[in-house]
Amino acid sequence: MHEKKRIAVFGAGGIGGVVGGMLSKDGHDVTLIDTWHEHITEIQKNGLEVTNQDEVHICKPNAIHLNMLQETKEKFDIGIISVKSYDTEWVTHALKNYVKNEGYFVDFQNGINDLKVAEIVGKEKTLGCVILISAMATEPGKAWRTDSRSDVAYKIGELSGGLSNRLKEFVDMMQAVGISEYTEELISERWSKLMINCMVNPLAGLTGWGTADVRSKTITQDIAIKVAAEVVVVAKSEGYKLGKIVGLDPDDFVEAAKGGKKIEEIKSQMLEQARQAGSSSRPSFGQDVLKKRRTEIDYLTGFVSQVGKKNNVSTPFCDKVTQVVNSLGVGFEPSEENLLEIEKLL
After folding, report:
1. What number of helices (H) and strands (E) belong to the chain?
2. 22 assigned to some structural domain
3. Could you say which DSSP state residue 329 is in?
4. pLDDT surpasses 80 at 279
5. Residues 6 or more apart from 221 whose CB is under 8 A from it?
């Protein structure tokens, strides 16, 4: 049985809302911190409505606007970072002095930002969570887990590796949110999740399609397989071995990208993933495009391209996807036509 903790969740969107809300319902002293004024105000007035798959919960976490952080009187045991990748540094700096010296931070983000968090707070105080579910926060006072998967939802590990007592305790706490397990290979797991993000998120943003459509349509399936193969090769160049992804060996994607016999099996698995995603699911990248916000492209395919260049690994599809998104700028209109330049590489 774990003791109740005082927890700060910086970023109260889909993931931060679901995690923070459910941890508060389990009895932890949770404070959500965000810049979304209407969302925080609604939570303060009426609580946070968390739809965790088939169950709806009215949760009562504390909620503060960013400018109220300096009014904090008691430091937190745990700081959860659940903001966009491009906000990682300033958010971690902002929260650093509000977490106890013996406390720690957990990175709940897309991309591979654990090392950035560790540079600021110390590797010895850094855990990471690989998020295997989908979530949205589309209106004030609500957070919604949109996927239908029934297996592991969160994989949590120490950046330094190993199985610590605090890791076991945090995994135990997270069972109140969703099925959680620990990993002793956090960054390898990050690369596996990055591959999935790169296959779906930018293509959803470019087209305006939901997760299920991106995984079902032939054009995005074909591009996604090429992108996945590049991520696998780049991860290997960094010395990381990826585990099975949607039940398939990572090398299957490399072979499929070359026209190998695994193409149809991979596409079949993508259709199954589309079914599990549900018709309402939309990656955070796609949500950002629809909201006319900056995207995380430089931390997804852009990151793969950057590491590939460093290690002399060719990444033409990641390069092109990143180039197309960045050339469209902030606030672009999603359209299938945005895939035309990428499609030429097929």
Report:
1. 14, 12
2. yes
3. -
4. no
5. 215, 267, 270
